[in-house]
Amino acid sequence: MSILPDYLRTEVLTFDLHHRWFLILFRHLEDNVKAERWGFADWACEKVGRYLLVHNGCEEHSMQRFQYDHIAEHKKAHTFFVRRWDQISEATTQRRLDLSDVADFRQALIDHIASDDQRYSDYFERTGRLLQANNVLWRDGLALMP
């Protein structure tokens, strides 16, 4: 999947690019596990883990800067995703990854983007900060790619 579906777009451009890359990396991981190309699977798994850290940091930085009122709740979701991905990464390293775990993780992340991330996007738009949020992420030098 190369295009981010509308229901997953936040209009915060950096975040939307990250979300798109997540979906591409999940596909890459799944394809390589099915083909038993473990070196490529390890690479994709490591990239997803790194993206989680960079992306979560970018979102939390932006939310904190603009005093988003659900930041603590959002950080808890991020912590869950990082911990769960660590388990998936370990299973990949040990060559015992169950692809249903990746599919479940991907779906949970999609649900998070479609609901929780949309909530902060609505907040930025409602408070007139959407353009400012986009500009701050670029000006502060937060990563498009890890």
Please give the structural blueprint.
Elements: H1 13-34, H2 38-65, H3 71-93, H4 99-126, H5 130-139
Number of helices: 5
Characterize the largest beta sheet: strand count, sense, and whether it forms a barrel.
Answer: none
Q: What is the residue-averaged pLDDT?
A: 89
Tell me the name of the CATH class: Mainly Alpha
Proportion of residues in helical segments: over 70%
CATH superfamily: Hemerythrin-like
Instruction: Please give the alpha-carbon distance between the first and last residues.
Output: 20 Å
Name the beta content range: under 5%
**Number of β-strand runs:** 0
Task: Please state the second-level CATH architecture.
Answer: Up-down Bundle
Task: Give me the strand/helix succession.
Answer: HHHHH
Q: Please state the structural category.
A: mainly alpha
- Coarse shape: elongated
CA radius of gyration = 15 Å
Question: What is the total domain count?
Answer: 1
CATH topology: Four Helix Bundle (Hemerythrin (Met), subunit A)
Uncertain regions spanning at least 5 consecutive residues: none
What does this structure look like?
The mean pLDDT is 89. Helices cover 76% and strands 0% of the residues. It has one domain: Four Helix Bundle (Hemerythrin (Met), subunit A) (Up-down Bundle), CATH 1.20.120.50. The protein has helices at residues 13-34, 38-65, 71-93, 99-126, 130-139. With 146 residues, it is an all-alpha fold.
